[in-house]
Amino acid sequence: MRFDDRVTGDLKRYAKQARVIHLELDPAEINKTQKNHDAWMAQFRELEEQEKAAVMQHDLTPTKEGLTMGEVINLVNQYKADDAVLVTDVGQHQMIAWRYFNYKKTRTQVTSGGLGTMGFALPAALGAQLHDYSRQVICVVGDGGIQMTIQELENFIGILNRITIIFTRRGININALTASESRLEGIHRITIEVTSTEEAVIQLVNQIEKIIDVIKAFYHEDGGVVYQEIALYKIPVTRLDGGLEKIIRQHGARIISAEPEFVVLELTGHKEQTQELLEILKEYGLLEFARSGRVAVAKRMLTIDSFVK
Ligand SMILES: Cc1ncc(C[n+]2csc(CCOP(=O)(O)OP(=O)(O)O)c2C)c(N)n1
Question: What burial letters (b/e) apply to 6-28, b meaning 16+ CB within 10 Å?
Fold first, then answer.
């Protein structure tokens, strides 16, 4: 509470029986109406020394085996950036983290405050990171609180699930799907190949864009993208003869691994090319075959940057 004279009124009559602890952010307010903080401060300093000896000493330099919570936060202090943001959940770790975290800057703490809801920290930390990718965000949670929202860590898989549901509901088959990082940190790209009508694909794109984590969904026909697929073929080494070598050369494939019992060939190209080689290699005792989805970049000059602030 602020001890403004508008609050206290006549000081001679204000809370005469009370002993007051005045915590204040504004130095100008100290000693303005409530006096005699010096005695309090002296007592606090004495108690602080007692706390250091009785509590902090044991937390930070324990004699027992194993890490204490205080030691963990102390280690964090050694590596953290000065403007790192500390997000805590609710519980014992919260008290310890606040006690030992080496705050160097203001606006570096996120807490659920009086609401005290376990499960707060992880989504709050993700939110803090989304707000500013350049800042280090440190999330401290107890083993109880982490159980409540740990599924947030599956965010990326979550997206794939939600996308798959959109396709399943419409009965549209996904021919191939590739996911990778994009040029922008923290943003992933997913390329999905489907065979369907233009109208259905436009509807799919609109639905996918409604997923909260999706920044933008683009739709391209074959001619609108430059793409490649990679195919791997495993052949028994006993079948490697002059004829097969000629086929490998003709198709522009290459041997990427030679083991005592088999060789692995690799061919990158469009599906027709990798498929053609597949049909030929079936005659050579093909042991295994795997083909990736499309790795594609759009021909249009419009990029994701214009959709990211
Ligand atoms: C949703 C919710 N349920 C219950 C509580 C009551 N509560 C406060 S702290 C706590 C224990 C937290 O344990 P843990 O997450 O392991 O952290 P620790 O105290 O061990 O650091 C409980 C049950 C709460 N604050 N919020």
Answer: eebeeeeeeeeeeeeebeeeeee
